[in-house]
Backbone:
């Protein structure tokens, strides 16, 4: 195993663990007796743990190396995961989600630091493929957990088996994880500035769009488009499929077209997808819109992380956590913003708002191109 494969394994682990938890949510709700409102608050604990830990990943990786921080973070994940199924009170579940979120946040930042260094060392586009493995891990996590439960295994046994798989993948990849990271410069956390602020803003918007599709696509299809409840998940399925395929093929696409064209084309494709969703009359065209959104968004975030290694505005150990945190805030804030707009206007109008934000991504990418003078090869 080389450094490239080891990095892919860690991205796969992060997607696997996150998706596995998504399958556990109904069981956790039942075990704790939490209502919808309380569950929503508890789920914020996961995001809170991730956001608090993300700024620490840069300086910790600089001091101890990517290998140690990734390993510790993944161990936190695999230990806490089974206990999430045992929590019988909201307080215990909230504390465990804080711990689980801490592991997720540290892993997300440290693996991107590793990915940037590996890509720079090999001097070829690799970031889309790394993020593609996160998507593959998500599909595998949801599929494996669902399969294990369908076989009659308890949720605890299923989570233990997932933890065992995570531990095995970490063990296999451990020796090829980098024992170093970029030297720490400046404070542990700083407000993003220069190009890093633009990277973060683009990631915020794209993650907001992804969160919108995740949390509102089924509601839109069922309540607005009168699609049968059994088909409500088709929108997100199309989105996730297109994103996974787009990321796995993204490195080759970026090599051929260049970073700027991939981002501009992606933003336009996602914009067109959202426009299809709120204008198309047939289900086929609406689903085509979700495919466009997934394909368009697929490689924008990976390109942003690739460019972090080339910018000079902030040290990498500070820039990666800053951009990751802004993106994660987009995931958390997106569904709430869309709900607010839908409540005061309509869900289609909320999608119009997200479509407009994709135009902002296009404009910001043009500004980045000008500021960083990243001339792409045709």
Residues:
């Amino acid at each position: 195993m080389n450094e490239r494969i080891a990095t892919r394994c860690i991205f796969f682990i992060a997607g696997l663990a996150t998706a596995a938890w998504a399958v556990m949510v109904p069981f956790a709700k039942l075990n704790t007796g939490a209502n919808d409102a309380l569950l929503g608050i508890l789920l914020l604990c996961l995001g809170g743990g991730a956001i608090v830990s993300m700024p620490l990943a840069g300086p910790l990786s600089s001091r101890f190396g990517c290998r140690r921080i990734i390993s510790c973070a993944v161990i936190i994940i695999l230990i806490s995961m089974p206990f999430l199924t045992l929590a019988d009170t909201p307080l215990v579940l909230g504390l465990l989600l804080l711990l689980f979120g801490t592991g997720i946040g540290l892993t997300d930042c440290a693996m991107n630091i590793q990915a940037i260094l590996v890509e720079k060392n090999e001097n070829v586009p690799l970031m889309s493929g790394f993020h593609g493995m996160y998507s593959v891990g998500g599909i595998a996590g949801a599929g494996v957990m669902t399969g294990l439960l369908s076989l009659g295994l308890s949720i605890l046994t299923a989570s233990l088996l997932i933890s065992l798989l995570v531990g095995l993948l970490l063990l296999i990849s451990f020796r090829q994880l980098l024992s170093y990271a970029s030297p720490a410069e400046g404070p542990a956390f700083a407000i993003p500035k220069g190009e890093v602020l633009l990277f973060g803003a683009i990631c915020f918007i794209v993650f907001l769009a992804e969160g919108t599709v995740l949390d509102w696509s089924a509601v839109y299809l069922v309540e607005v488009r009168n699609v049968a409840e059994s088909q409500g998940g088709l929108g997100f399925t199309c989105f996730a499929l297109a994103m996974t395929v787009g990321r796995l093929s993204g490195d080759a696409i970026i090599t051929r077209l260049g970073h700027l064209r991939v981002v501009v084309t992606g933003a336009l494709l996602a914009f067109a997808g959202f426009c299809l969703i709120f204008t198309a009359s047939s289900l086929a065209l609406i689903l085509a819109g979700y495919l466009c959104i997934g394909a368009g968004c697929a490689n924008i975030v990976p390109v942003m992380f690739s460019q972090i290694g080339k910018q000079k505005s902030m040290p990498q150990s500070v820039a990666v956590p800053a951009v990751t945190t802004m993106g994660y805030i987009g995931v958390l804030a997106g569904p709430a913003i869309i709900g607010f707009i839908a409540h005061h206007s309509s869900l289609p109008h909320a999608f119009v708002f997200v479509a407009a934000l994709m135009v902002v991504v296009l404009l910001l990418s043009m500004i980045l191109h000008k500021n960083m003078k990243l001339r792409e090869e045709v």
In short: The two ends are 33 Å apart (CA to CA).
